[in-house]
User: What shape does this take?
Amino acid sequence: MVKNSSPSKRKSIPEPTIARLPRYLRSFAQFSQSNQLVISSKELAAVSDINPAQVRKDLAYFGQFGQRGVGYDVKTLDEKMRGILGLNKSWRLALIGAGHLGTALLQYGGFAKAGFKVEAAFDVDPSKVGWELEGVKIWGTPAIRQVVREKKIEIGVIAVPASQAQRVADDLVDAGIRAILNFAPCALSVPKSVLVRGVDLASELEHLTYFLEKSSKSDKTKNSG
Assistant: This one.
């Protein structure tokens, strides 16, 4: 049973809760593949690597899901979560930067499976303009504004060097883009109405090396003792 709260009664949803929703969605896929129809918050927490109390709290922001003592219906919860995340429709993407990273992103099949369609790609290299990669035409960067408007693209993905990222972001914003995924290792200045998510691969690796170094020092201390 699912009871939705009216938007006016919903509390402000914390950013960490929103960030965990895709993890829940991927967990539902695992349960579906194993033909498990009903799950408990404890089972969902174990697969998602999240505390059961946090799972219940996160879901409660969006309504009353499941029944006490019975659990959650996997199919229903999956459908509701897709609706919450806006994945019950297709989203049009533009990729700016058709270098090594951009090419890898175009070749990634997960976008289409999740409902994201790359409608156009752009690059500054004249030798790439006019070519198609994975069925996507590559345009010159001067055409960003025109093509984004014509194709009604909703999300821009920036995969260019940091020195070019702000100019690209300005073009996307001028074309009406309100959501940007930025792979360039820099901060972008955009209007408050535009949402930017940064993916800094080097920073993520540095985050990992911090814990590796910390663990290494801890092991040395134990061994010396």
Observations:
- The chain has two domains: 2-84, 91-203.
- The CA atoms of residues 44 and 50 lie 8 Å apart.
- The two ends are 57 Å apart (CA to CA).
- The domain at 91-203 is CATH 3.40.50.720 (Rossmann fold).
